[in-house]
Design goal:
about 200 residues; mainly alpha; Tetracycline Repressor, domain 2; homodimer
Chain lengths: ~200, ~200
C-alpha cells in the first residue's frame, strides 16, 4: 500500500467511506463486499488490490479512518479543556457531530460489540481510539484540577471513562427514540464531576 | 401462535435463544436463518411455522425475550431500590449478569444501533425495555428522595437515564478491553447522584 497514486488514494478512500456508512447502517455482519462494490462502482479485483486481506482489512481501515474523524471533529476543544467554556464548546461540537450531522450512533462505539467477539485486531483499534480520546479528556480534567476548578481528589482517568461512557450509552438510549435527550442528560450528569469542588458528606 | 403445544413452545423458545446468542456474537446483520437452522437443527418449514414473518419477526421475538430476561436478572432489587444497600445489591446482580456470566454486552443495547436504522417496530421494542428499566430506576430515586437520602432537587428521570447510559456506555468501553473497569467506573460515577444531598456552589 506504500505506492498508491493520488487517484489510487482517492479510490481507496471512497471505498473506506462507503463501507463506513454501510457499517453504521447495518453493522459489520450486515455489510458485504458486494454491497461495497455496488456502492462504489468498483470491481472485485480493484477491491482486493486496495484491501488484499479482504473484508477484515477493509473494516480495520474503516475503524482507523472513523477514529481519526471522530477525534478531529472535537478539535480544537479536545486539546484544550482547561476551562468550563472549553468543555462546553467541546460538548457542543460532539453533539453536533452525532446528532446535528444525523449519525445518531458512534462509528467507533458501534464497532465495539462485533469487534470484541470476532476480530481481536479490530478490537485493539477500537480500544486505541477510546484510549486516545480518554487521555485527552483526562488531561483536561487535570488542567481543571491545576487551577482549582475540579476537586483534586477526583481520579481523572475514572472521570474520563465515565464521560466517555455517558456519550456511548447516551447514544444507545437516544437511537431507538430518535431523541437526543438521554445523550444530553447523561453528558450533563457526567460533566457534574467538573463542578467546583463540592462538599460531600 | 395462540395454539402451540408444550413441545411447540419449547421448540420455539429454543429457536429464540439460539438466535439471541448468534445476534450477541455477530449482530443482526451477521445472523442468517441458515445459521439459526443449523444451530437448532430445525427445518426451514419449522422455522416459518413458528415465525411466519421470517427473520424480522424472529429478531423481535428475541428482543422481547431478552428484554424480559434482562429485567428479571435484576429482581428483586430493581423493584425496591429504597436503600443504598438495595442499590448496591442491584448493581452487583447487574455486573454479574453482564460480566460474571460472560456476556460482555447488553442483549438489548446491542440491538439499538441496527434497530434504529432498519426496523422501527424493533426499535420500539428496544425503547420499551429501556423505558421499563428507567421507570424502575426513577421510582427507586423517588423512594430515596422520600426518605431524604437523595437531593429533592434531582430529576429522577434524568438520573435514571444517566445510570442506564453509564451501563450501556460502560459496556461499550469494557468490551474491546475485556476488562470491567470502565463499566464499574461509569456506574460508580452515575450512582454518585444518590449520595446524601451535596452542598454545591
Amino acid at each position: 500500500m506504500a505506492e498508491l497514486t493520488e487517484r489510487g488514494r482517492r479510490t481507496r478512500q471512497r471505498i473506506v467511506e462507503a463501507t463506513g456508512r454501510q457499517i453504521l447502517a447495518a453493522g459489520i455482519g450486515g455489510t458485504s463486499l458486494d454491497d461495497v462494490r455496488a456502492a462504489t462502482l468498483t470491481s472485485k479485483s480493484q477491491l482486493f488490490h486496495y484491501f488484499p486481506g479482504g473484508k477484515a482489512e477493509l473494516v480495520r481501515a474503516v475503524a482507523e479512518w472513523e477514529g481519526g474523524e471522530l477525534l478531529a471533529a472535537q478539535l480544537p476543544h479536545l486539546e484544550d479543556l482547561s476551562t468550563r467554556a472549553s468543555w462546553e464548546a467541546w460538548r457542543a461540537a460532539l453533539v453536533d457531530y452525532y446528532i446535528g450531522q444525523g449519525r445518531w450512533a458512534c462509528p467507533i462505539g458501534s464497532l465495539a460489540n462485533e469487534a470484541a467477539v470476532g476480530d481481536p485486531e479490530l478490537a485493539a483499534l477500537v480500544a486505541d481510539t477510546f484510549r486516545q480520546w480518554a487521555s485527552r479528556l483526562a488531561a483536561g480534567v487535570r488542567r481543571m484540577q491545576g487551577v482549582g476548578e475540579v476537586d483534586a481528589a477526583a481520579d481523572p482517568d475514572r472521570v474520563a471513562a465515565s464521560i466517555l461512557s455517558a456519550i456511548q450509552g447516551g447514544l444507545v438510549l437516544s437511537q431507538p427514540l430518535h431523541d437526543p435527550w438521554p445523550l444530553e442528560a447523561a453528558l450533563d450528569q457526567a460533566l457534574h464531576a467538573l463542578d467546583a469542588p463540592a462538599v460531600r458528606t
